[in-house]
Amino acid sequence: MSKKTKKQIKKRVLFFVVIFFLLFVLQAYFLPATSVLGKKAFNYLPLPAIFVNANIVTLGEYFSRLEISDALKKINIQTDEKQQLLNQMVLNKVAENLLSAKGFSVAKDEVNAEYSLLKETTQKPNLAHDYNLSEGEFKDWFVYPDLVKVKLAVWLASNRKLNKEAYVKYDLVMGKVNSGTEFDSLASAYSEDALSAQLGGDLGYLSYKDLIPEYFKEVEAVKDTKVHTAYSRYGIHIFKVLASDLKGPKDSKRYKVQQIFIKTGDFDQWLLAQKPSYTVLRLVR
């Protein structure tokens, strides 16, 4: 076989490889998601499924989240539910943009800590693999977006201008606290946590498994029994740490907490209201 013939054969092979690759990629954009072949391969190809301004949701993330939804429902996900999933992924990117604009970020250590907590609380040591994902994929596509929204929700709860009614109540309560009114009576009168309000705001002894992480972090930082304020994804917590012990999971600390909870604006509604200011281009069916 001559060198010229070998060169022609190589060109033809390369041509067919390129054509095959292009057809493989194009099917992801023109076929319904349920008909796309080799979805797992797209985990390794950073191709866009959706543009949200300059940010992208990749095909790998889109197909993996669809498969997980199918597995959880045990049936094929319906068209309207696909749209809901796409909308959720768009909102994740909107939240990421907003958080960055506020000057905040989510660190890798925070993602790893949250993933470890999820494994412990769900009692699933192989959590990512249970969904046929690597730990990196699970963290990138589930843990990280959730933490972004939590941080953004905490920022929203701390914003007086966007929660005027809540802060009128907060100022009223803090005025009474500073004037010496009993915390128990204030919790009963003003706390929006109905259950603990009946007990004068008493939450009992709580470990890291019992409180949302951003609130627990504030609680464990307290070294006195004075009144403090914390912000969480749900609102404002006016609280006191009355005592502590070492009876939590793995002999960790528990804290006896008393609180007055004031709910702030609905984060999901606020986030949805930010979406129209973003350009969204959907490429998948």
What features would you highlight for this structure?
single chain; 285 residues; alpha+beta; Chitinase A, domain 3; 4-stranded antiparallel β-sheet; 11 helices; 7 strands; 53% helix; elongated
Order of helix and strand elements from N to C terminus: HEEHHHHHHHHEHEEEHE
Overall tally of structural domains: 2
Residue-averaged pLDDT, rounded? 91
Computed Rg: 25 Å
- Secondary-structure-derived class: alpha+beta
Query: Roughly what percent helix?
Result: 40-55%
Biggest sheet statistics: 4 strands, antiparallel
What does this structure look like?
- The protein is an alpha+beta fold and 285 residues long.
- It has 2 domains: 33-157, Triger factor/SurA peptide-binding fold (Orthogonal Bundle); 164-270, Chitinase A, domain 3 (Roll).
- It has helices spanning 3-30, 59-73, 79-101, 108-122, 127-130, 135-157, 164-178, 183-190, 194-197, 213-221, 267-274, and strands spanning 48-52, 55-58, 202-206, 228-231, 235-245, 254-263, 280-282.
- The strands form 2 sheets. The protein has a 4-stranded antiparallel β-sheet with strand order 3-6-5-4, sandwiched between helices. The chain has a 3-stranded antiparallel β-sheet with strand order 2-1-7.
- A hairpin with a 2-residue loop joins strand 1 (48-52) and strand 2 (55-58).
- 26% of the residues are buried.
- The mean pLDDT is 91.
